[in-house]
Fold:
Amino acid sequence: QKNEIAGAGLDVFEREPLAKESPLLQINDASKLLMTPHIAWATVEARNRLFDLVVDNIQGFLKGDLKNVC
Structure:
C-alpha cells in the first residue's frame, strides 16, 4: 500500500483459498502482486513425469537397482 515493494510473487499459502479479509487481497495495485495456488504439480507434464518416476522406482526396486536412495 505504501509502494515500499516494487513487486512480489507468492506461492503456497497457509490457508487456501485466501480468506476474504486477507491483506493480500487488499493491495491497491494488483499488477505488483502475482499469487498462484499451490498446484505446480498439477500440469499434465508434471503428472506424467511423476508417473514415469514411480514406474522407474518400482522397476528399479524389482531389479535390485534402487533409485533416489538417501
